[in-house]
Every structure is written in structure tokens, then in C-alpha cells.
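Slide 14.
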Amino acid sequence: MTDKNSDISWFSKDSYPYGLSYGEWTVKWWQWILSIPTPHNPILDQSGENAAINQPTEHVWFLGGRVGSEDKNFPFRNCSIPAGRSILFPVINCEANPIEFPELKTKEDLINHVVNDENTIAEKTCLLNDISIDVQRVKSDPEIFEVKLNDDNIYNVNGGETIACADGYWVFLKPLPQGEYELSFKGSCENGRLRSGANYRLKIQDKE
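Slide 15: predicted structure.
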């Protein structure tokens, strides 16, 4: 194992990276991904060209998989990340809001929907340079949070401000040493029918 690989580590689900709970960071991830229009949305991108859009200004870099589907082929993306950033991404996750699911009338309906969906997960794996990374289930914190969907969003529904709930399996890497890394993660739900994931070539570079 190289020295670079020996420095790979990640946050536990009960930690408070940069003063926020793990679950609070997942809420920020959802607010990030749902605010970006589909032509530039990183989880619809095949090459990684949109990976840097609307990233947090410091501490953390967000990555995404793809929208769940029956397709077994995952995108391969190239992504350059400034040194010193932790990296947060979902291996597989679920979010529900009343715009996308008008039948979910109450906060309890939203919570039950995402819990039931995550309970069908059949697979959740993550490898970084062939090192197995711990995948952890983390609920949104708070369970119900505010979100704004872009008018041109990944769900192809009306945009607007609403409330949401989310649950899922995440990886939150601590800052990696400079260099190149191969990242691969995938998950499946509905007992394997729907699949999400992505492959990345990460380049950790000098801070700008």
C-alpha cells in the first residue's frame, strides 16, 4: 500500500465535520443538487465537466452518482478537487417532497416514504483505489428540511420551494493527499431493480 492510500480515512455518522452533523451536510447536498438545472446537473453528467458547479466555498466537495434506473452501466467522470477538501457523496439515497409526490400530505408521510424506500436496498459498495470504504446510513438532519427545486430539475416536475425528507447511504471522506484516485460506488434498491452509482478519476490538486 502506498503512503497516499494509507492516509485514506472518513467521518463516522455520529461525527460533526466542520461544526455540522453528518446529517446536516447531507441536507446541504440535497439543496445543492436540486438547485442545479438539468443541462448542468452533475448527476446527469457523463464526463465530469459539471462537477465543479455551485460547490461549497470551503471545507467540503460534493460528488453525485446518477438518478436511479435499471441501466447497469454507470458514468465515468474526471474531477479535479482542491487539496484540503473533504468529499461527500451518496452511494444510494432517497429524497421525497410534496411537489414530486403530491400524495404525501404530511411530514409523517414523507418520513415513511424515504424510510420504506431505503429499507429495500440490496447493495451498497464503495471502493477508493481498491480500498473498501465504510458506507453508512445517515438520515437528513433535521428529518424535515426546506429545499428549492430548480424549475428545470432532475425529477421533471414543477420547481418551487417546499419541504423534504431524505435518507440514504453515504461516504464522507476526509481530505485526501494530493494525487490521483480511482473511485467507484454503486447501490441498488427495490431489491436490486433500480441502480445508482458512478465511477470517478479524482485528481487532488493544489489549492487555487
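Speaker note: The helical segments are 3-6, 22-35, 107-118.
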